[in-house]
Sequence to fold (580 residues):
Amino acid sequence: MKLHNISLAVLLGLGVLTSCDDKLDVTNPNQQTAATFGYSADDLEENVIAAYNHIRMEGTYARVGYMLDVCRGDEVWNSSQIWYMPFDDLNAPFTDEIGQWSWRDWYYTINVTNFTLSRCGEDNNALNDQMKHIKGQMLFLRGLAYYNLAGYYQNPILITDYNTYSTLDGLYGSNSTYDEVWDQVEKDFAEAMTLLPTRDAGGQWAKGRATSGAAAGYYARALMMRHKYSEALTVLKAIINGQYGTYKLMANYGDNFREGSAYENNEESLFEVQYLDYGSQGTDDEWTPVNTSPNATQGHAIESNFGPGDFGGWADLSASNWLYDLFKKERTTSGSLDPRLYWTIGTYEPEWDGFEYGNVCYTTPMTADAPVTTNNNHGGLPVAKNTNFRTGLYDKVVTGLHCGINLRMMRYSDVLLRAAECENEVNGPTQQAIDWINQVRSRAGLANLKLSDFNSADKLFEQIANVERPKEFGCEFGRGFDLLRWGWFYDAGRLKQLKEHATFRRTNDKSRVKESVSYSDVGVDPELKSSYDSWIQGHEFFPIFQGTLNDNPNLQGNSANSSTSNADKLYGPVHPVVNL
Fold:
C-alpha cells in the first residue's frame, strides 16, 4: 500500500515538473485551421452543410446566378431596361461586375468541396457509408459548380486538388479548355452516382440532399452539352426505370412552384435548392458569401426580380409574348387553357375564375379591364413562376432575399423530355420518344402526339425544343444552356427564330400588354425591340470580369472578352427550322 502511494506521488511530481517546462497542448475549437479541422466525419458533415449553403447565395442561385441564364434565353426580356440589360442584350462588357458574382460564388463552393474531398481519400472501397455519402455530395456539388461555370464562362480555371491552394502559382491558375471542364463535370457526377443513396432511402435523402438520382440527372445533362446523346439516353432510361430512385410527375403542375413541406422535395424533384419558408426566416439579407449573419433571411430574390412594380417588385424581367402566344395556341382535351400558363405567366384569363387561386395577383383580384404589367414604364407580362403571384401567401412582393419557394433545378419532366430528345437524336422519331413526351403533355391535359405526324427527326426536335420544353420549363433556369448546346446562335435560321421569339414591346399602355408582336416590325415601330439584335459573337457566354483578369496574370478572357466566334466549336449539326 505504501509502495503504491509513493509511486503515485512520484508520478504526480513528475507531472508537475513537466508542466513547468511544457505548455498544455489543447486545440481551441473556435480557432481551428485547415491543419486541424476535417479529420472526423462530424467535421466533414459541417463542410457539407457549408457547401449546400453556398449554392443558395446571390451569385449561385439566389438571384444573379439564376437570372443570368434566364436572361440569356428567349422566354424572358428585360422590362426594367436597366438591371441585367447587358446580359439580356447578350453584349455585356467585361467591365460589368455583376457578371463576376456567379464566378465568385461558385468558386467559394468549389473551395469547400475540394477541402472536404482532400480528407476523403481516393479509395472509395475503404470508406464507410457515411464517408461515401459525404464524398458523393461533395462531388455532386463540385460538378454542379463547374457545370455552371462552363456554361457561363466557357473556359474557367479547373481546380480539383486542395493542395493547389498552398502556393500562389497554384492559386493563380490558368484557363482550362471547355472540354477539360466538361470532362471533369462528367467525372464528378458519374462518381457521385456510385456513392450516393437514392431518394427512396428516405429521411434527409428525400428532403433535399443530393442523391444518386440527382447526380444521374445532371450527368445526363452534362453529356448532352456535348451531344453525347447515346450515353445520355442510357442514363435517362435508367432513371425512368427506377435504378436511381422512384420519381413521378405530380398530378398538379403547380405543386412544383409552391413552398411548404407538402409541396417541396416532392416525388417529381431530382434536385432543388432549399430555402426557408415565409415566416420562418431571419431579417438580414446576405448578398455576398462573406456577409454571414446569424439572422440571415435564407430566401431568394427571384420573386423580387420578376415581381410587378405595383406590388412592390423590382419589375426587372417579363415573359416574352412568344411564350404567351405559344400557350394560347393549344387547348386541353376539355377545351380549357393549359394549366401551366397559370403558373408561368401572371395574366388575367376568364378561364382562371374558379381555377386554383383564381385571377389574383398577390391576393388582389385581377380583371380584364385592369391588367397587371411588370414594369410601369415598359409594360411586360409578369412572370408568376417561382413567385407567390398565384399562391395567396401574401398580398405583395416581399423584396430582397425573402422568397421561400425552393427552386426545383431538375424535375422528372426534364428527364422524360430529355430522354425523348436523345431517343430522337439516336434513332429518329420513334413511338418511345412520343410516349415520353405524351406523359408530360397528359399531366397538362393536352392531347397525345402521334408518331405519324412527325416524318423526320428535325420535325420532332422542333416540337420538343420550341413547344414542349418552353411550355413545361418556361422562365426557369436552363433555356440559355439549351441554346448553347443546340448551337442556335451560329445558324442563320435559328438566330432569326430567336430574334422573333425575343421581340417585345416597351409601352406603359397596359391594354397592349398581351398583343402579339413581330420581328418584322422592329425598326418600324419604335416601341419594339429584339434582344438578339444586339448579340455579339462570343457573347452567348458571359465575359470573365476584367478585375478578375487583372488579379490573376495567368488568366485570359474568353470568347465574350474578345468577341470572337464559336461557330467552329459546335459539337454537331444544328437542326434546321421546321414549320410545325
Notes: Strands lie at 76-78, 269-273, 317-319, 360-361, 364-365, 381-382, 407-411, 503-505, 528-530.
